[in-house]
């Protein structure tokens, strides 16, 4: 069983690590579309083109489920991908609904890229699930770029985060939603910055659980021609991530080494595979 995951860069590896936690033997094919990073600077047309190309590439590689592990791309192109590929497709979105449900103060914060913060998908989530809760959406321009460069701690990162969070936290916000998969690598520094009683939510675990559910459901309904899932994946199989990079592979290797040295949770057994440039 293989699943495909793609993102504009390394952020979606946080989702891949969560998938490995719930499906320990799954084979993951991952594409980091670094030649087009950051997606926030791309037009809607380019985002749809990349989404379709990357998703179809993973299906052609034999992946039986595709995860669009990018909030910007999910907002811009998820429905196009679902209409185009012949396998289940999972997107990511800020965890507004569970945050509102869990919040005691009924005030939550969403950290997001500029594109996601201004997009219709987040607006719909807030409209449909906030009810009487207050939702403070904080655009964080440049933060994903810092993570993509391997910068997940230090005074610059801390200052950027707290300069935005200080106001809502002082006003009683008790939930911080991470609206970009890159931000999952900032959990440790956020835990240091935020006061006790403030909870951090990201999309990695819910997406991983959704992937597991869909694969089990597909096997039970015989919509995928695969052996029983628990026999084929989770009993003794060795998990790995087959990683393609559309930009410069050496840069990504260096960033992953940097993240690993700083304690970031990365997937097990990342194997790089050649990918044609700017395809």
UniProtKB/TrEMBL annotation:
Biological process (GO), any one: regulation of cell shape
GO molecular function terms listed in the Swiss-Prot or TrEMBL record: glutamate racemase activity
Pfam family, one: Asp_Glu_race
Keywords: Cell shape, Cell wall biogenesis/degradation, Isomerase, Peptidoglycan synthesis
InterPro entries linked: Asp/Glu/hydantoin_racemase, Asp/Glu_race, Asp/Glu_racemase_AS_1, Glu_race
Top-rank taxon: Eukaryota
Keyword Cell wall biogenesis/degradation: yes
PANTHER family referenced in this protein's UniProt entry, alphabetically: GLUTAMATE RACEMASE (PTHR21198:SF3)
Enzyme superclass (EC): isomerase
Cross-referenced PROSITE patterns: ASP_GLU_RACEMASE_1
The keyword Nucleotide-binding is assigned to this record: no
SUPFAM superfamilies on file: Aspartate/glutamate racemase (SSF53681)
Coiled coil: none
Documented EC number(s): 5.1.1.3
Catalytic activity: L-glutamate = D-glutamate
Name used for this protein in its record: glutamate racemase
């Amino acid at each position: 069983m293989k699943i495909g995951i793609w993102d504009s860069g390394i952020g979606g590896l946080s989702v891949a690590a969560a998938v490995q936690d719930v499906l320990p033997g799954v084979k993951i094919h991952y594409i980091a579309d670094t030649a087009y990073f950051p997606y926030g600077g791309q037009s809607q047309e380019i985002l749809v083109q990349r989404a379709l190309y990357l998703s179809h590439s993973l299906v052609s590689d034999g992946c039986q489920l595709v995860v669009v592990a990018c909030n910007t791309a999910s907002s811009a192109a998820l429905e196009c991908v679902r209409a185009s590929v012949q396998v289940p497709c999972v997107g990511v979105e800020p965890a507004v609904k569970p945050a509102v449900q869990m919040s005691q103060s009924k005030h939550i914060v969403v950290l997001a890229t500029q594109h996601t913060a201004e997009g219709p998908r987040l607006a719909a989530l807030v409209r449909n699930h906030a009810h009487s809760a207050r939702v403070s959406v904080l655009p964080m321009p440049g933060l994903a770029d810092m993570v993509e460069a391997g910068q997940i701690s230090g005074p610059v990162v801390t200052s950027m985060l707290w300069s935005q969070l200080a106001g809502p936290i002082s006003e009683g916000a008790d939930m911080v939603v991470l609206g970009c998969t890159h931000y999952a690598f900032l959990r440790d520094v956020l835990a240091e910055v935020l006061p006790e009683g403030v909870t951090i939510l990201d999309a990695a675990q819910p997406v991983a659980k959704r992937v597991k559910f869909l694969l089990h459901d597909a096997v039970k309904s015989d919509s995928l021609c695969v052996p029983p899932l628990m026999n084929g994946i989770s009993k003794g199989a060795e998990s790995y991530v087959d990683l393609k990079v559309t930009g410069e592979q050496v840069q990504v290797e260096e960033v992953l080494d940097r993240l690993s040295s700083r304690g970031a949770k990365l997937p097990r057994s990342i194997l790089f595979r050649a990918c044609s440039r700017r395809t």
